[in-house]
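Recap from last week: sequence in, structure out.
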Amino acid sequence: MQYEGIVIRPPSEAESLILQATFGCSYNKCTFCPTYKGRRFEIKDQDRLFAEIEEAASWGPYYRRVFLADGDVLIMPQKKLLPVLDKIRQTMPWIERIGVYGNTKSVLRKSVEELNELSDHGLGIVYLGLESGDDEILVRIKKGVTAEQMIQAAEHIRKTPIKLSVTALLGIAGKTDSKRHAVATGKVLTAMDPEFAACLMVMVVPGTELHAQMEAGEFELPDPFGLLEELALVLKNTDMTDGMFMANHASNYLPIRVKMPGEKEKAVRLIERVIEERDPKLLKPEQFRAL
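Predicted structure tokens:
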């Protein structure tokens, strides 16, 4: 098994077999993202990928889930993606779920019928980056889509058995627009109504456009308690039918995991109590935070 470049995966796929089906990201323009820079997007040769699947199968039922990297496997044409899903299921019948990253445009390029076909062939979850529910912020970070388009993508997926996990970025609007970003993000998460919603705290990485903006004084991150205020506002404005709301990524100062809707109010009170006390000892130390 050989990987090329930086390989990332969602936190919930930590114990999954990672198979690199594509290289890079089909979009790769977001101002905050340090991954895949200088890498042209391409689909891995099928023979090479199939050989790696067979290699993984020879290890036996060590893994129960598979995550297909890199940044946007869902953009693969149906005629190329379906054989990959079939190969995994044929050689590793013990695999319980296959997951992928998908961006909004790649989701909307597929019909509901095509998404259902992917589900029939083993695709179990799609991870979609919302980042912000505010269109002005989305333009600023060069997301390339609107909040309404992301809601439409979520509606596409919700018409299938495929589960949807949506991530938002705390701090991405900077200090000035923090509250507006948080309220809008909660409202869009409500409209998307995914099975999983996750808030990560943006980490400004040298070499990114966002870092250059910060160095130039054009962007200022809220302090840790300001980021928690954002988190509380996002959660207050998020009404999910069911599922999990999480802020337990390595980047988060205060890890929380909330079963929606029943545990929402308790979680909001916890966050607000930490904000009120403003005790740094209640937060994850900086040296333990990471992307």
